[in-house]
Structures are given as structure tokens and as C-alpha cells.
Write a structure and sequence with these properties.
The protein is of the alpha+beta class and 136 residues long. It has helices at 2-30, 33-38, 56-71, 78-91, and strands spanning 43-44, 97-105, 108-116, 119-122, 130-135.
Length: 136
């Protein structure tokens, strides 16, 4: 019984992630970049708080977005993934911060990721990007 309940919950989360990834992918392709960036939230000031555990629900959302991203035929980039993650977390009233940064300068490569309580829940990289902006 418990296993069935967990499977149903994960399936619903995966379906929600697929919907939000699709919407975010369409938005990032059709909207001007300034409008698409606004989907990450309002620009926030830099904060120097330490990382605390993100919470189980936030981690489940991040994992669902990562898992579904690998299954979609168009493989959404980090920006639609961050937009979808933020939307799903906000639906659950979980405070999060969306980040934009630079990973490499030659060739230029940017990255978007989402944190909850200072812990990355979506968009983890093996090395830290230089943060350019954060959004609440």
C-alpha cells in the first residue's frame, strides 16, 4: 500500500514537472530573453547566509525536474529547468532563489540553478559558477 502511494505521488510529480518544463521551454524560445529571465522572479540582493538543508519536498521537486528533463525528447536546458523548478516550488509555498551565473568565458557558457535555504535543489554543477544575479 505504501509503495503504491509513493509511486502515485512520484508519477504526479513527474507529470507536473513535464508540464512545467514544456511551458518553460516554450516561453524561453518565444519570449525575448529579458522577459524569459523575469520568469525566474524579482531581482534580489546578494545574501551571505550559510546553507541549511533544503527539505524533503524541495529535493523531491528538484529530482523530478532532473529526471523528467532526461526523458523529454527536446532535453530542456538549465534555464527552463530553473523556471520549472521555481514554479513548482512556489506552488508548494516553498521559498526559493533562482540564480544566473557564468561557468566559462571562452567559450561563454551561462548557467541557471535554484536553491532553497542556500542548498542547490536543481542545477548542481561540479564546479561553482560565478553568480551574476539572483531572483526571489
Amino acid at each position: 500500500m505504501r509503495r503504491t502511494s509513493l509511486l502515485l505521488r512520484r508519477s504526479a510529480l513527474a507529470a507536473e514537472a513535464g508540464l512545467f518544463l514544456t511551458l518553460a521551454s516554450v516561453a524561453t524560445r518565444l519570449l525575448p530573453s529579458s522577459s524569459a529571465t523575469r520568469l525566474l522572479g524579482r531581482v534580489a540582493s546578494a545574501s551571505s547566509g550559510g546553507a541549511r538543508p533544503a527539505g524533503d519536498e524541495a529535493l523531491l521537486v528538484g529530482r523530478a525536474v532532473n529526471r523528467v528533463t532526461r526523458l523529454l525528447p527536446w532535453h530542456p536546458t538549465c534555464l527552463p529547468q530553473a523556471i520549472a523548478t521555481r514554479a513548482m516550488l512556489r506552488r508548494r509555498r516553498i521559498d526559493c532563489i533562482s540564480h544566473l551565473g557564468v561557468v566559462e568565458t571562452d567559450p561563454f557558457r551561462a548557467h541557471a540553478w535554484v536553491t532553497v535555504n542556500g542548498s542547490v535543489v536543481q542545477g548542481r554543477l561540479s564546479r561553482d559558477p560565478s553568480e551574476l544575479a539572483r531572483f526571489t
